[in-house]
Each structure stands twice: as structure tokens, then as C-alpha cells.
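Why run this: before we spend reagent on co-expression, it is cheaper to look at a predicted model of the complex and decide which construct boundaries make sense. The entries below are exactly what would go into the expression plan.
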Amino acid sequence: MNLLTNNFFRQLVSRAIRTDYLENLTGFAWLVLQPLLLLAVYAFVFTTIFKARVPDSGTIGFVPFLAVAFWPWTAFSEGILRSANAVSANSALIGKVSFASELLPLSTVTATFLMHMAGYVAVLIVLTLMGTPLHPWGVLASIPVLIFMYLLSAGLSLFASSLQVFVRDIGQILPPFMTFWFFTTPILYSVSLLPEPWSKLMSLNPITWYVEHLRNFLLFGNFELGPIDLAVPVFSILVFWGSLKFFRRLSRHFEDFL
Amino acid sequence: MRPLVRLEGVSKFYPRVHKPGERLRAFASILAGREPQSGAQVLDDISLEIHPGQSFGIIGENGAGKSTLLKVLTGVISPSKGTVEVNARVAALLELGAGFQPDFSGIDNVKMKASLLGMSSRQLDGKMDEILAFADIGDYVHEPVKHYSSGMVVRLGFAVVAASAPELLITDEVLAVGDESFQKKCIRWIETFLENGNTLLMVSHSMFLVQKLCRKALWVHEGKARKMGDVFAVTQSYLAYHEEKSGSEKRLRDSQKGADGLYQVKEFRVVGDMDSDELVIGHGEDLSAELILYSPDGRPPVALVGVMRADGTPVYGVASDFDGISPIAVDKQHFRYHIRFRALQLLPGNYTIRGHAMDPEGMRLCDTTEIRFSVSGQSREMGFIHLPHDWNGEG
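The model came back. C-alpha cells follow.
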């Protein structure tokens, strides 16, 4: 099944965008304004109150350092949180119509990513205007990084949303888990700030690889890659593939449990 | 010819999932790749084949498993046992709402539903006017569906399904919600649809509709296929079952009276074809019955013969003394009556014929025996008796 040509999938994505993002907003303007306001809040809190500094970052200030990692993380985490109940929220549809139900979480993740990527672009433009030079090749190189990150988010969404049908507690466990994941990922800080055993441990977190490479590509113009850098993209693909299998095995029984 | 639909030995269990422990156990067995084999059994070993052009009706009591069967057929749920094979472009209209999202406008839901039925946006653009004209709900299409009446939801749902040009249309009891003129419109549409060689699979409680639209039928009873075959045979047995169900109480009451044993029915038999222990008389054939009555005092008792429907509704009754008939004496205490109803005008269905012994004055009912029989034949006439008639002075 080709997602891009599937009319039903497009309908689901556009429906999700309209209900979740555009319904109560006066238009597209808010879509860009909202993330920028959020960035302003973070900039104020971390540079003025906490006096956060980024070590070894040369001329890069804390705000660009944070912004470049924060938006992809938000897309990743919100994608999972929003789609976790995508199956049970659509129980009426599942009980009446036969369709590929994996489209439900996939459309939610896709809509979330599309919206946050629009915000990301806006943030990157504002950063450039404010005097943080972004590397043009870095912008290009970060596209595949973001696509792999989307795949990982989609995979975990498939896993969580199908498991949630059988184990309702997933809805309660996920938010604190994602908060824990956020703070154990070097988004608000740099790995180099951590003492030895912890920085090693942190490299096992796939999101660490994503945020570090986005920063390297966009801010530092550092394009060094080794064979080890294949690990996380391959891992993301495997998670997506395995989760899709898992979802399809369970989806035949959704109606019995909803 | 390849069947449109083939079901083989389909059973469905709904696993027990109310307690968290049961839920986890059922989940674990699914993860291990096993189908749940216990729980509430809704379908039990159902097999059927539907061929192109052979429209199929599914009938049965509430809770018999009809809707579950449709869900299995449309692929909404998978059977616990057995196989399902569908070789057609299917459009299904199950239950009210048909998968509509209440917060979205009619137009948005039409787009969603059409995409679910496999239409591309370009195909839909070409058909949108047709859909809106068929649904005929005016400016309401721009309102959220939650503000619709149930009839309007069905109108819109049916309009989309009609536009998707299916080969097999599966409907649950949904048309009943529409008003008279919309129902007629749908039935006209279905008739054209059938004339074009397509196939309908419907669940309905309206035997009239099932007989009108379907050629074959399946009666589902407690999850099992109780009877399957020609639509008339199946609907007649189903109706007879209901008549008997509501009549059994009344018969019990009746059998308690008239037990005054002076004059007795010694023998009562009906002449007819025996078809698997069931007495069958063809519509329009003669119904003959013979009564042998016993009289302790040698005076000939009066015979009363009555016919009633399986639910106990009297159809006709006549006593020998009404017609001034005397019996043939078999011996001093036994008397024989023979009665023949010529060219029986009862419509197909189940009936009971009763023979009674009355006292010689024809005042008191003394003994009763009854025989059940059914009238066979194919007829779409309604009621239980054929009234001779002609139309426009012909005939």
C-alpha cells in the first residue's frame, strides 16, 4: 500500500491537521507564531533566569542550540503521545468499516510531524534573521535525519497504539515516560557536561544521535560521519518494520477488545 | 463459476475481556499467535456461498448473530475458526452512522467515506453532485453530522455507497430509518442495481423486503445456520417459528378445557404427503380429514373441525350439525365423519387442524385432538388466506 497515493490516508492526515491544529486558531499565522512564542519563553527562562551557557560552542548562543534540537524532539514525542490512543479513539470506525487500521496512528504521526516541521522551518528562518548562520548544506543534510526520526516516531506510535487497545494503562504510563526521555536526552544541555559513565550511557539513546547530528549539521557545519552512524537509522527502520508487524498481528483482534 | 463470497465453517468467539486478568490472558494468547477459542460464542460453524446475481437475505431473531456474520463478511472482524473469501468490490452499510465522524460536516464525511470505499478524489469530484442529489438533504451537508437526524445520516451514507458502484452491497437493517419516499428511492436503486447483475446481501426483519429483493436466504438461529436455501422456504419456516413461539402459551390454555370424557375422539387423521414427519399440503390441493368419535350411550356425537394458524389464530371452524350431516356408524359406539376442504386456499405457512367431539346436541365440547400441517407453495401474497379476486374486471 502506498501511503502517498492512498486517498483515505490523505483524508485522515488532513482531518487530523484540521482538528488538532487549525480548528481553534485563526489561521496559518498561529502555526508559526505559536512555536516562536514558545521559543521566546525558553530563551527567557534559560538565558536570563538559569544563565545557561553552552560549553565549546564558540559563537553559538543557547537559544539556537536549544531551538535546533527542541522542535524535532517535540514532533517526535507529540507524535507518539497523540497517536497512542488513535486506535481506541476511532473504535466506532473500526467496528463498522474494514480498512487498514495502521493508517490511524500513522496519519496522526504524519500530521504532527508536518505541523511541527512547518514550525521548525519558521524557527530556523527566525534564527538566521537574528544572526545565527545556518549551514546551507546542513539544512539539506538534516532532511534525511528528520525522516529517520519520523520513522522511529511512527514505529513507536504503531507499537503504543496497538498495545493500548489491550493494555489501557499505556495512556497513563506514556506521558511521564516521555518526560523522562526528554530530560535524559541532551536537548537542554550538552553531553560534554556529563561525567564519564553517564555520557557513555547517553549515547545508547537514539535521540541523542538525532539531536547531536542536527546540531552538527545545522549549527557547526560538521558533517563527519562514520560507519557507526548507520546504527541509529537502521535501528529506526527495524523498529518501524517490527512495529508494523506487531500492529498487524494485533489489529485483527481490535474489535474484540475495544 | 467463482462465488462472490464463500464462508467455510466460520465460528466466532468474543473472548472474555472485562477483568484485567482475562484481558491480559487473551492478549498473551493473541501474541502467541493463537485464536481465542473460548468466550461468548456468537457464530457456530456457518458455511455459505453467494454467487453473482443471487441476492441473499439473512434473517433471524435479535441477538442471533446476524450482525456479527455481516462483520465477518465485510472483514471488520476476523473469524475465530473457518475461512472467509470475498471476490468482489464490496460496499457495506452497517448500522446507523456508517462510520461517520459526528464533528465533521456532511461533505467532509462524504469525502472520508468515499476514500474508504476506494474512490480517488478525482472520481469523487465527478460524483459529488450525484451523491448530494441522491441524499437530498439540502444545505445540511455543510453542517456537522451530529446535528443530523438519523434519517439524514442514512440518506448520506446510502448516497455515497450508491455512488461507489459496488458489485456486492451489504446492508444491515438501515433502510428502515429513512422516510417512506427515501425508502422507495433506495429500493428502486437496489432493484436497478440487481437488474444490472450485481448482488445484494441484506439483513432485515422485513420478510416482505427479503422476499422482494433476495432469491436465497439464511436463517441464523443462536449463531447456527438453521435453514438455508430458497428465500420463500426459509422465510416461511422463520415466520412459522415465530407464530408457534407466540402461540404455544395459548395452546396450553386451550388443551385444558373440554376434558369432559363422555364423547371422545378415537381417531383423527389427515390425508397428505408426509415430508420428514411433517404433514405438507400443497397450496390449492384438497385437505381431507377423518374423525372417528366414541359415544358411550350410542347416540351419535357432533363433530367440530377447525383450522387455525400456528399461533392459534382461528381461520375457520365448522360443526357437522351446522350442515345437518349425520355420521356413518362404524359400530354401536363408534361413528365416522369425513370432511374435505376443496382446493385449499390457505397461504403457505404452518397451521393446525383440530377435530373435536361434541355432545349429540352440539352444545358441549367434550374432546379435542390436533394435527399440525404446513401448506407449501410460493406466494408473495400477504395474510393467511387467498381471497379469489380479479383486477380491472378481467379474470
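The domain at 260-376 of chain B is CATH 2.70.50.60 (Coagulation Factor XIII; Chain A, domain 1). The radius of gyration of chain B is 28 Å. Bring this page to Monday's planning discussion.
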